[in-house]
What we know:
Number of helices: 8
Number of strands: 12
Mean pLDDT: 84
Strand content: 15-25%
Low-confidence stretches: 123-130
Helix content: 25-40%
Amino acid sequence: MLLASETAKERETKKLNEEIKDLLSAASAKEQMMSSKFKSQGGTMKEFCSYGTRSECRTVKGSVCDKVHFRKLIHQHTDTALGDCSFLNTCFHMDTCKYIHYEVDQDDLNRIKRANMSAAVRSLGSQGTSDFKMMPPQWVQCDMRNFDMSVLGKFAVIMADPPWDIHMELPYGTMSDDEMRSLNIPTLQDDGYIFLWVTGRAMELGRQCLELWGYRRCDELIWVKTNQLQKLIRTGRTGHWINHGKEHCLIGVKGNPQHMNKGLDCDVIVAEVRATSHKPDEIYGVIERLSPGTRKIELFGRPHNVQPNWMTLGNQLDGVQLHEEDVKRSFKEKYPDGKCI
């Protein structure tokens, strides 16, 4: 016991190291200001219970915790001996699949809804005035290969999730490599960033496109995919050799963008898989914190991508919705009938 106990010098050194660690981990005044500025208002975030269902949580812990749980969906055709479905809520055959599926426990949903409503009421009157005004969502239904993007003006941030030809069967049309290279991306930006989603063989092609469009790759963001139960994807639907459990987003910089908030976010997003090619919503928060209040555009967007302060282009959108007067005039001059597809 005497040999294992700490000496006075060791205790002093340990205390000093802990004090240094606390000083290094403490947020600076600037970091505290930035954190306060971008803090979400009016809502509460809840964790999913690691034990899954309420019954399992109660069995292990003796009582049900206040985290979010799941409820097993047991149908007449379900064979519980087979265990959980690999695809869970993304299964294409849920009506006949014999494996176990899940849904979020309704009691937990109601409890969170009540908590969010209470938080929203408390936040009224406590929110400071914003430094910038958010523009309502704007979009244009168009064929990206032919649309004259110069009528839209310049943007601080571009995000694109192209329909790359990755030599796999996909539920949507794709574009050839040459069509991707020839897109008139340079007209959209003089100084700023581009976020380019890539996967499979498109990773190298994406780097080529960045260079052709006038960008220098400066960073990379990774989306680690989780399933409905918030566990890592082990049986994905993509990958020629091994199942893909992540996707990459290349980040390129052009010119000398000003007033960007660097160092706020991590380069990893851990988020649940949803519909095919539906990227995590967290990416919009990352970009807005990087470049708050600036003009942003998303290419190859779909209805679920439409966001405040963003212009969205894609052939699956519904018509044209523009709010900026100068853009409306330019668009009207180029496309008098309002059709660009």
